[in-house]
């Protein structure tokens, strides 16, 4: 009897151990399935974010400023007058900055926007040109003389475009830029609506004022792009005026080279800047038509636009290459610098034509 009870107890313990082992194995298998599912979900999320990021990284196409202005004015029942093409184009370029796929990405703090850097640099290039055009309209184009009052709406629009481009809250950059667009729309309504108390003076000196800023912007971009391979440059700061020493004193000879991590940043900034400039120059060709015809400068302006259009060609390489000047690999920065430099040289010639009597 004792042996029988001991045997029964032992069999019961063995069966219980087997059941426990089987339950443990089932638990481990269930946990493994959960982790595997979580891994697949994470992988799918990363893949979707990567595809969305690629889609958001496509830069917007160029649009026809004449057709865009005609449609814009018709929708708001405004009349086409001198200045409407430039004003509408400025509004449309700023709206594209905010409404393109993915919206405004520079201040994103969540994936995939936080992982992208090419598009934020493109946005900054566009934003710089928007700021320069709004500044020129406020300080010169909307005023008859240097002692004239500034336009009430442009006074409010211009500083809002100069708000911090990377602020994501309190307030967000987008909200400030939306307000600036709203004031530009009020300026346009006052210029092309029934009120007609806003001005746009399409004079040669006003065009020259804006082009002087464009010239310095393109000159800066050209130098930064050309520095992709590194250049030993002489200090020409005091050329023509040796009695005006800089502070602090600069070296006579220095190596200028763009860090490899910033090559694509500079290229996409230049690409965005050129994209916005193409539209503004096309708008200027419409609103300043009489001045350009009088100065026989329309062809010069069209040549600038053509040079800048070369910067918008599709980049087929998956990454920005930085080959040496005459090496085996291409250098995308030098190609971009070539277009920018030729456009800048043409702008210098155009400004000279405008300044002549």
Structure summary:
The chain is mainly alpha-helical and 357 residues long. The chain has helices at 2-56, 65-75, 84-99, 118-141, 152-161, 173-192, 204-226, 263-287, 289-294, 298-309, 332-355; strands at 231-234, 253-256. Strands 1-2 form a two-stranded antiparallel sheet.
Individual helix count: 11
Q: State the helicity in percent bands.
A: 55-70%
How many beta-strand runs?
A: 2
Q: How would you state the average pLDDT, rounded?
A: 86
The profile of the biggest β sheet is: 2 strands, antiparallel
The neighbouring-strand order within the major sheet is: 1-2
Distance between the termini: 129 Å
Domain tally:
2
What is the structural class? mainly alpha
What is the succession of H and E elements? HHHHHHHEEHHHH
**What portion of residues belong to β-strands?**
under 5%
Low-pLDDT sequence parts: none
Overall morphology = globular
Radius of gyration: 30 Å
Written overview of the protein:
The chain is mainly alpha-helical and 357 residues long. It folds into two domains: 8-56; 62-232 and 253-355, no CATH class. It is 63% helix and 2% strand. The protein has eleven helices and two strands. It has helices at residues 2-56, 65-75, 84-99, 118-141, 152-161, 173-192, 204-226, 263-287, 289-294, 298-309, 332-355; strands at residues 231-234, 253-256. Strands 1-2 form a two-stranded antiparallel sheet. The mean pLDDT is 86.
